Amino acid sequence: MKIEFKGQVGIITGAASGLGRAIALNLSDKGVKLALFDRDTIGLQKTRDLLKGESEIYVLDITNEAEVAESIQKVNDHFGRIDILVNCAGIVGKTNILSHEVEADNMQLVMNVNLMGSFYTSKHVLPKMLKNNYGRVLHIASISGKEGNAGMLAYSTSKAAVIGMTKVQGKEYAETGVTINALAPAVIRTAMVESLPDEQVKYMTDKIPMKRCGTLEEAASVAAFIVSPEASFSTAFTFDLSGGRATY
């Protein structure tokens, strides 16, 4: 099946690197005009230089609602519409720590980036999509949000919250032409994963029947389908990308 977007406009958060960059490359190849969100100016420029189609970069703090609202309005004013939102911005925070040793500041930071950032962007994008009776929102969650990874309380909790938000939002807008879904990867080989302790990566990889990490290209391909016009009957759903780890 050939996926076609026909000049649609998409916002990708966390577009300066990793999965955000990979999804940007995939969608750009398919003709999507892109607004790239991140706080990393240099990384955003590197992503933009790799893209084929029209794109704009927006440097902002995803945890600041005022900045998010302003940037989304600028995107809408510039491109005239917003069809797609992919929330890739995320951090792991401190890991390999027992729950009673987790610092409140670190817990709050991870929740702010991973949950509140996705909440802010979707909150301010949805009215734009509703005016057009069409939209695709994809929140990047994690298999740890379903199963929990020991030593990763903040990250697992934040991703579980993203999954819960997805279920609510998908149901709320199910009759509007706007779908809201999540993607729950197992370990994807990104810079974020590379920064984890070896024992943490081994703990996660050992749970995958394929005994390997997923690739950025594999994740980007699945994401592109979820936000495509063809994926019109799936909403409030969390897609797994787990190499066999998730079987439910």
Summarize the structure in words:
The chain has nine helices and seven strands. The longest helix has 29 residues, at 104-132. It has one domain (9-240): NAD(P)-binding Rossmann-like Domain (Rossmann fold, 3-Layer(aba) Sandwich). A seven-stranded parallel sheet has the order 3-2-1-4-5-6-7, sandwiched between helices. With 248 residues, it is of the alpha/beta class. β4, α4 (104-132) and β5 (135-140) form a beta-alpha-beta unit. The mean pLDDT is 94. Helix content is 46%, strand content 15%. The chain has helices at 18-29, 41-50, 65-79, 104-132, 144-147, 153-172, 191-194, 198-205, 216-226; strands spanning 9-13, 33-38, 55-59, 84-87, 135-140, 178-185, 238-241. α4 (104-132) packs parallel to α6 (153-172). The protein is globular, with a radius of gyration of 17 Å.
